[in-house]
Each structure stands twice: as C-alpha cells, then as structure tokens.
Specification:
The complex is a heterodimer of chains A (503) and B (95). Chain A is of the alpha+beta class. Chain A folds into 3 domains: 286 residues, no CATH class; 113 residues, no CATH class; 57 residues, Arc Repressor Mutant, subunit A. In chain A, 40% of the residues lie in helices and 19% in strands. In chain A, the strands form 4 sheets. In chain A, strands 1, 2, 7, 8, 11, 12, 13, 14 and 15 form a 9-stranded mixed sheet that branches. The radius of gyration of chain A is 30 Å and the shape is elongated. Chain B is α+β, with helices and mostly antiparallel strands and 95 residues long. Chain B has a domain of 38 residues. Chain B is built from 3 helices and 3 strands; from the N terminus they run H-H-E-H-E-E. A two-stranded antiparallel sheet of chain B has the order 2-3. The two termini of chain B are 36 Å apart. The chains are: A alpha+beta (503), B alpha+beta (95). Strand 10 of chain A pairs antiparallel with strand 3 of chain B, so a sheet runs across the interface.
C-alpha cells in the first residue's frame, strides 16, 4: 500500500471584508450502477436507445406492477462498498420517497433512507506535495434514477423519456470533510477512478452516469475544528446544496461562486437560507430552485412492495475475494516494482486500461523507459489523434518491440521515434520494419569513421573554427548523423568526432 | 399529534388530491381519528419484538441481471394523454 505519511492539506481560505472565511463541503455522488438491466425491472440500461424503448411496465408505474430486485445491482453496491473499505450491512431496506414530477411515473422514488446497504468507509484524496485528504464516506444506498425531460423540442411542451427511469444508482454520501473547490473535484476524480477500477460504474459524466450534489457552507477559521471535536453542526454555517453537477470544472466554479455568495450575505449582516440551488455555467452563478423547496416534504415510508434485503456474509466474502487491485495499491506497486516517480505512477494508474497497457509493455523491460514511452510518445500521439487506449493502433507487444530494439542498440532513440510513427500509422512488426527499411543503427566504427572523415574533409573552415571552439564539435556530429540518415550510434559518433578533431 | 385544517390542506396538496375548502375540516377530523388509533397502539409494549415484515418466512425475491423486458414503446405510450415522436408530451416544466 501507499506510504501514508500524508499531511492533511490546508483548508481553502477566502478573505472577506470582515476577516477570513473557510469552506466546508460535503458531497452526494450519484453513480449509475453498471448492470445490463434496471434495479427493479428487466428493461435494459443501454444508453442512447429510442425514447421509451427501454421501459418495462414497472418502470412506467403501471397499476399492479411489482418491483423485483436485480441481484447484479446488489452485488455491484457491495463491491463498491468493499472498494472504499466500508462496512457492508447484511440487512438493508427500501423506502419510498414521495414527490411528483413528470419523469417519475410511480410518484415516488424507491431509495434506502433508513437502512442503507453500505455504511461507513473512506476515500484518500491526494492533493500533491505529500498531502492527502481522507474523506469519510457516511453511507452508500441503492435507489432508482428518474427519467429524462427534454425542454427544447417544443415551445410549450416538455418531452419525457423514461429509458433512464428505474436504472440503479448508488448514492455515495460523504461527510463534510472536503475543504476547498480543488479538493472537491479531486475527490470526484478519485471516486470515479475507484468505481472504474471496480467496474461498478462507467464514470461517464457526459452521459450523466456520474453526477454530484455539492453541499457548501462557510465558517470562520477555528469553527471547523470545534465541529470536528464535538460533531455539533452548530459550529458550521448554514449549507446550500448545488444539484446535479457533471463536470469537474463546473464543480469548482460553482463552489467558489457559492462560497463568495454566502460570504457576501453574511458580511452584509444577512442570513443564508438552507436551500437547493442550480449552477448556471453560462452565467457562472448559482440560483435557487424554488420548485424543489415546495416539494421538500418527501413523506418517506418503508416500501410495502419490498421485503428487507438480506444478504449473507459468505456472499460478501466471495465478492471481496474477487476485488481487483485498486488505484492506491497499483500506484504504490508501480513505484516500488518499476521505480517510477509519484507523478508517472499517478498518470499511468489514472485509468485502469492505461495501467494494464503499461504493465504489459513494462513486463521484462526497464520500467522507467517503458513509462517514458507510454506517457510521452504513446499518450501524446493518442491525444493528437483524439484516440483512447481502447482504440490504440499500437499493441503493447509492438511498443515493447520498439523498446527492445533500442535496448539491444539496434536503433537509436531518434530512429525509434520514426519507427514508432510508422508502427502507429501503418502497423507491422517493429523488428521486421527496421530490417526491411534499413533503419538499423550503424555501430560499425569503420563506417562511422569514414563518414566523420568525409565531413572533416569537406569542411576545412569549420575544422579550424572547431579547434578554437570545441563546442562546435556538435555541428560535426549533426553532419555525420545527417550523412548516415540518423542511423549512426550517437555515442560512437561523438567519440570519433572528438578524436578526429583532436579535441 | 393533532391535524388541523391547514395540515389537511397541505397533505392533500402534496398528494395532488383536490379537496374542496369545505371538505377540509371533516378530512382533518378523520385524520385525527386514524392517528388517535395509532397512538393507542403505542401503548403496547413491544420491547424486544422484531418488526414483522412478512407473515410467512419469505426472502426478498430476486432476478438475475438479464434484459428480459422493454421494446414496447407503443404499449408504454398507449395511455398517455399526449405523446409525440416516441416521447410523453407534458405541459412545460422547466427550472
């Protein structure tokens, strides 16, 4: 595991007219559970289907239809809980949260208010420079997603698509342990990374498969410590909840705006109202969602259609034994086994697919060289093409082959980059390409000597200058490389040029 | 707990049930009668008694994670007062 000698990072401080303010942030992340079918029906969860195609009568709230729970969703929630070292509740239960909205045909959302399936856990969020925030997770519960309303297809009507209705969500609730906008975004990044490693949520924020509600309040320096010591929320300011954020950048902008809004109210002698707000990225402001306030009385009660959910410890243990290596452990192993820097290990483990790719390339080779090639050449080239590692035209074996050719001294580093470009655009076996296209490095000293002698003979004036100024030897090296088509071994060329010029 | 006319009005609104103003006092009194009965149940000593969730020893029924339903757009939309291009069409609701 990672060496946990982390210091906690400093809380973000905003200077007000009447003194400093600190931020206190808690988050509720809604993660769509990666399963084929919905939480309580056999309809598909596939994104992008025809409107209302993935709808069972249960999802449409037809009278008399009864929910039957999808075992896959339970397993995924348990797996997620285990991934954040959380307590798994062998007995949980479902409740109805009652409200009316066109995209909720049942008139209630089935959720787990009183007895969630996952209890307390934690997520370590690295903030650089040896600091990390340990964000405690209060709970994870399973619930149904709502449908989707589209408001811009008609001037007077809203259009409702129930394909997402009833898809399983995990609501991951944090404690108010997050102390700044950057930490909030880093927390979501880390959570997303863990979910993707576990395979319990695809983390696609663009499609809304991962979205966050952010609770923000401000307090004076020292107040948070009093809250931490006593657990008394009275030491903290009144919080506002910003709903449905699905971009790391907007999360940060919204928190910053909201904190400044609250500070302005407080410094004017006003009082912050606890309310739900929406962030408008076009105007960079948050505004009140008054309609939500009215419906805030959800009249929760246990869902009479569903018995309590009981799972067995042996089943939980089975899931635990199949957990993959998680980001923190993988990063630590990459640093110790391959000698990578903290930064390189972070980059390579950010996405699990990238980590797998790197590991295949690094197997039996120099880890640092493999990391350089994967990060600088491969990722750089993929980014240029707008490709992912999934549709990478160069296989780990091919990239490994290129690295082997350099290690064996068969090609120079410069030629290797040309070779990489050929493999990237045309494909093929690197060793064969080197052979057929005559790209092999010239290590034969007599051939290099001949080239050096030729350059010296053709440039007597430069030779004189170089004798005055040894730095000009580099010019000769360049000429020799040019003459040999870049195939000469640079170290050998350096040595022979210096020797022939008598430097 | 006692339900007044105002609370009855609020409960009706939350449940989206239209109740005429004149009917509210009678409704409030009915609520009170029901709650009174429930309060009476509170007198029963249930210390150490597990809440009963089923009259027979049953386990929550589960399904496998397999797609077995859907692809019935026409049937799903059949009862909709208004549907267009595969969507339910409702009066504009926008934040």
């Amino acid at each position: 595991m990672l060496d946990l000698t982390y210091e906690a990072p400093k809380a973000k401080v905003i200077a007000g007219a009447t003194g400093d303010w600190e931020l206190v942030i808690g988050m509720e992340v809604h993660a769509q559970v990666a399963t084929k079918a919905k939480l309580f029906s056999g309809a598909s969860t596939e994104f992008g289907a025809e409107p209302n195609a993935n709808v069972a009568f249960v999802d449409a709230g037809m009278p008399g239809m009864l929910p039957v729970i999808n075992e896959g969703c339970i397993a995924q929630a348990v797996r997620t809980g285990l991934g954040i070292k959380a307590q798994i509740n062998l007995r949980s239960a479902f409740d109805r949260k009652n409200y009316f909205y066109p995209d909720l045909p049942q008139g209630y959302q089935i959720s787990q208010l009183f007895h969630p399936i996952v209890g307390e856990g934690e997520v370590t969020v690295e903030m650089g420079n040896g600091t990390a925030r340990r964000v405690r997770i209060e709970r994870i519960h399973l619930e149904q997603d709502a449908g989707k309303s589209i408001h811009d297809m008609d001037p007077h009507m809203s259009f409702v698509d129930l394909n997402r209705t009833g898809v399983a969500l995990m609501e991951i609730v944090s404690r108010p342990d997050i102390r700044g906008p950057e930490e909030a975004a880093a927390y979501v990044v880390k959570l997303r990374q863990i979910l993707r490693y576990l395979g319990t949520c695809d983390g696609n924020m663009q499609n809304g498969n991962l979205r966050a509600d952010v609770n923000v309040s401000v307090c004076r320096p020292g107040d948070y410590e009093k809250f931490a010591a006593t657990g008394d929320f009275g030491h903290l300011g009144t919080r506002c909840e910003i709903k449905n954020m699905n971009s790391m950048r907007f999360i940060q902008m919204a928190i910053d705006y909201e904190a400044r809004r609250q500070i302005a109210i407080l410094e004017d002698g006003g009082k912050v109202d606890q309310e739900t707000r929406l962030y408008d990225p076009d105007k960079n402001e948050t505004r009140s969602m008054r309609s939500k306030e009215e419906a805030h009385d959800y009249r929760y009660f246990p869902d009479p259609d569903l018995m309590p959910l009981e799972i067995e410890q042996a089943w939980v243990d089975d899931i635990a034994s199949s957990l993959p290596e998680l980001p923190d452990a993988k990063k630590a192993r990459f640093m110790s086994a391959f000698g990578l820097t903290d930064y390189d290990a972070s980059v390579l483990t950010a996405e699990v697919e990238n980590a797998h790719y790197f590991e295949e390339v690094a197997q039996g080779r120099d880890g640092k060289t493999a990391a350089n090639w994967v990060i600088n050449e491969l990722f750089g080239r993929l980014r240029k093409e707008g490709h992912d590692i999934d549709d990478c035209p160069v296989s780990p074996a091919q990239l490994g082959g290129i690295i082997d050719l350099i290690a064996k001294g068969e090609i120079s580093g410069k030629i290797a980059k040309d070779l990489f470009e050929i493999v990237f655009t045309e494909g093929g076996d690197p060793a064969a390409i080197v052979e057929t296209r005559g790209m092999k490095q010239v290590t034969d000293t007599s051939a290099i000597e001949a080239a050096v002698e030729q350059v010296i003979a053709e440039n007597p004036a430069q030779v004189e200058k170089a004798k005055q100024n040894p730095k000009l030897a580099g010019w000769f090296v360049g000429q020799v490389m040019k003459l040999t088509g870049g195939k000469a071994n640079p170290a050998a060329v350096n040595e022979i040029v210096a020797q022939k010029l008598g430097l | 707990m006692s339900i007044d006319t105002e609370t009855a009005r609020r409960v009706a609104k939350l449940a989206r049930i239209k109740v005429e103003e004149a009917a509210l006092p009678a409704l409030a009194s009915e609520f009170n009668a029901i709650l009174g009965f429930i309060e009476q149940l509170n007198e029963v000593d249930i210390d150490g008694v597990e809440p009963m969730t089923s009259v027979t020893p049953m386990r929550l029924k589960r399904r496998s994670d397999v797609v077995t339903d859907g692809n019935q757009q026409a049937a799903v939309l059949k009862n909709a007062p208004d549907a267009r291009e595969g969507f339910f069409a409702v009066p504009k609701v926008v934040e």
